[in-house]
Amino acid sequence: MSQLVDTHCHIQSILDDSADFTAEKWRKGGEEDPDNVIREATEAGVSKLICVGTDVSDSINAVNFVKDRQNCWASIGVHPHEAKDALENNDWKEKFPDLCKQSNKVVAIGEIGLDYYHQHSPRIKQLELFEQLLQLARDNNLPVIFHVRDAYDDFWPVYDNFKGIKGVLHSFSSSTDNLEKALKRDLFIGLNGIMTFTRDQGQLDAAKQVPDEKVLLETDAPYLTPSPYRGKVCKPKHIKTICEFLCDLRGGSFDEFASQTTQNAKNLFKLN
Fold this sequence. Notes:
8-stranded parallel β-sheet, 272 residues, 16% strand, 8 strands, globular, TIM Barrel
């Protein structure tokens, strides 16, 4: 069986008993055992997972979660929704550098970026935090998992001020114009379940045009469940469904595409 990688999931939140929105979604989906989720993924050929943090406590949870789980890694970051609170507390400045130094299983900074669709934090706060976290990535020589929604006009100038930073545009669903800009900058493109249910032909056209060597597969579990499983909680095992859909969309062999995207993940995140 071809091996696959879920480069973006939030399964560490299954063990979070707080009122966190992601943890609540897992509970509503009836999932209480992250190791069962990992087993299901393994049975579907998904052999490696990256657990992505969205704030300080979630990032710490992710690092602790992956510590003794052989095929799991962590990314630490602050989602743009949380920018205002993060700048007021500034606890990430103390915690994140230590996490980078203490754990060899921290493979990226993210998810970080700009979200002008919801704007739970003011744009100026998002931009301020984004620049600070990009500097953290540079200081620790780590790639970045970027969250960008309706904000590319501001994203590109900020990114271009940090030459040499590698990364992936998580949950890419933008235009071929932004795809071209991303590829010129040697960024990877994260494709997930959105492609299986979008009605936007422009998004599908862009997904067709990403070179195989620049695609990363992701679920964003528990979110963005692919068709035909809409209405159920998304899990890393659904990477196989996403991969099958993209092969049908783009043409080509499942095994070759799975192998290439797995190698892409290993290359960017230095997974062993």
